[in-house]
Backbone:
């Protein structure tokens, strides 16, 4: 019998790979005796992990919703939040507790795995930066190993001016070919804004790879650093990247920030100059498969799903199934719809 105060998400599998860099961060914090939710950096690891491993991964989020629905009253309060993909989850205590316990458990499971081959290659690379042949061989080796670890090493290489120009371009091409493997590491590293110089190549990567958050991350840097004269040149280069963005809301996002009362004057000047010198651009691709089109489809599908879920929760099962079938006809692999239909069709008591 389940205890009255038991967490319905206990032992939930969040599907974090052993080479995920957050596990490395967790191991470091444990070694420093800082593995507590009272520690600011540890809490950031947990919050960022929930955002990356749960909020943005619909398959995991749908399985969470199914577990909560199956738990009855114990999970019903969280169901509407988990099923709304626009809602953040790091404020839900049962998820924080379950995810944190999972990270510790997963770190222990992964500690016995075989050593990753990337480590020795990375060591040779950074120990031989003055040896062109050794650097090129190391880059080739890293590029041949498609893993989160090799992607992180290559991302670090391009973040600093440590290689000759043509070798840096080669490293950039290799890490770009691995996208989105380095994305989480880059986004996490940028979040704290502790950098002394802005890693321009990382923002260029996000823009070139059509990351939907690229424009938001650039504008965030402008807000944080605009009043520091040491960042002026870097920020001007970042703002120039906005001209290359294919985000259809680029100018709209800039205008919103420019009109916000809390925007620092120095940031406003940079953004106003961008708008004055920016020519109208056609930012949407004709293929219908770009990042923003896909994102819009996901949000539209979620709204239809929420309507179907509401029908089920009000007792209108047949109407809910009809809505789910309509949605699955448009999006046959939509995780939430598949989950709810499976739950409706499950034999009673299973």
Residues:
């Amino acid at each position: 019998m389940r205890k009255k105060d038991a967490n319905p998400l206990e032992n939930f599998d969040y599907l974090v790979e052993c080479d995920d860099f957050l596990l490395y961060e967790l191991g470091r914090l444990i070694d420093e005796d800082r593995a507590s939710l009272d520690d600011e950096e540890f809490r950031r690891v947990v919050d960022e992990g929930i955002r990356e491993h749960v909020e943005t991964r619909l398959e995991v989020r749908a399985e969470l919703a199914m577990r909560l629905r199956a738990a009855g009253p114990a999970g019903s309060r969280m169901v509407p939040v988990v099923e709304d993909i626009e809602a953040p989850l790091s404020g839900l205590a049962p998820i924080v507790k379950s995810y944190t316990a999972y990270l510790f458990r997963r770190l222990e499971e992964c500690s016995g795995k075989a050593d990753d081959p990337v480590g020795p290659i990375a060591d040779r690379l950074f120990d031989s930066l003055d040896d062109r042949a050794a650097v090129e061989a190391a880059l080739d080796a890293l590029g041949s190993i498609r893993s989160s670890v090799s992607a992180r090493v290559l991302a670090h290489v391009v973040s600093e001016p440590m290689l000759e120009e043509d070798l840096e371009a080669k490293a950039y091409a290799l890490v770009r070919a691995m996208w989105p493997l380095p994305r989480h590491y880059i986004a996490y590293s940028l979040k704290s804004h502790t950098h002394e110089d802005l890693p321009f190549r990382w923002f260029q990567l996000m823009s070139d790879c059509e990351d939907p958050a690229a424009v938001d991350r650039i504008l965030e840097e402008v807000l944080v650093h605009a009043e520091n004269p040491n960042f002026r040149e870097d920020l001007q280069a970042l703002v120039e990247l906005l001209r290359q963005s294919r985000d259809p809301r680029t100018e709209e996002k800039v205008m919103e920030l420019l009109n916000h009362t809390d925007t620092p004057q120095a940031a406003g000047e940079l953004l106003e100059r961008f708008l004055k010198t920016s020519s109208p651009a056609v930012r949407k691709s004709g293929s219908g498969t770009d990042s923003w089109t896909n994102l819009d489809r996901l949000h539209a599908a979620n709204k239809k799903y929420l309507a179907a879920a509401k029908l089920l929760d009000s007792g209108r099962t047949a109407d809910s199934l009809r809505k789910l079938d309509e949605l699955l006809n448009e999006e046959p692999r939509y995780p939430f719809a598949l989950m709810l239909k499976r739950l409706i069709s499950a034999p009673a008591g299973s």
Notes: The longest helix spans residues 291-313. The radius of gyration is 23 Å. The mean pLDDT is 92.
